[in-house]
What does this fold into?
Amino acid sequence: MFEDLKGKRVLVTGASSGIGANIAELLGSYGASVGVHYRSNKKGALEVIDKITKKGGKAKLFMGDLLQISAAIKLLESFVNTSGGIDVLVNNAGEIYGEVNFLELDEKSWDDTFTLNAKAPFFLAREAFRIMKEQGGGKIINISSVSAKYGGSLKTMHYGAAKSALDSITIGLARAGAEYNILVNSVRGGFINTPLHKKLGRSEKDIKDRIRKIPLKRAGEPEDIARMILFLASKAGDYITGEIFTVAGGD
Ligand SMILES: NC(=O)c1ccc[n+]([C@@H]2O[C@H](COP(=O)([O-])OP(=O)(O)OC[C@H]3O[C@@H](n4cnc5c(N)ncnc54)[C@H](OP(=O)(O)O)[C@@H]3O)[C@@H](O)[C@H]2O)c1
It folds into this structure.
């Protein structure tokens, strides 16, 4: 079912850890030629490359701080220059800056959260769109969050707003891309078991309380999201565009 991914040129941003690492590994295991992007965790990115190549797949390392839009544009350019084009862009890199009550939120945390989760994905997608238009098509998949559905928590309102902006970009780009066979979708993750939560300093109790609210009563695993990306990136997703999917255990 996913054999058509063989040789497809796929760039996954934030592939050094968590969800992005799993997406890169899974698509790589089906023969995609994967661009593994990281910002600071080179070790993690190299481990992903190692896993892909050990399974006989192809993967290359890319670095860039996506808080800089010039770096986002350069990343896309260097992927295209080394791969000869781009078939699938997975806008996965994301983070929450300033997880504090919204009454205490500072402007920089708002700006950085929006830059990483909405602005950089837009400019990466814009550059990919130009190439995909020339090529006769392609796919862009944006990793969003259920926080867009709920407006975030009291501490992640700005993150929810940024992911809502990303979902809006998905819808706009999908309409613009349809005539060029450029398909654009969002996948909203629920609570997924990745290093993100520890990095944010969330306590075990907070994590347990959050999981209790999930109808399926467990955290999602990165693979749960990666399988959805596999579906959309492959031929299985060839008649799907402008959609926002939720993979969140019923959340
Ligand atoms: N975990 C969840 O519960 C959850 C739920 C819904 C949606 N999501 C979304 O899923 C995506 C992946 O999150 P995750 O949970 O897998 O987190 P993660 O394990 O912390 O991974 C985040 C990735 O983003 C990269 N990144 C962070 N800041 C960056 C920057 N300034 N420039 C470039 N890359 C940057 C990191 O690169 P380095 O480590 O190399 O710096 C890393 O590869 C994010 O968009 C997140 O919003 C997560």
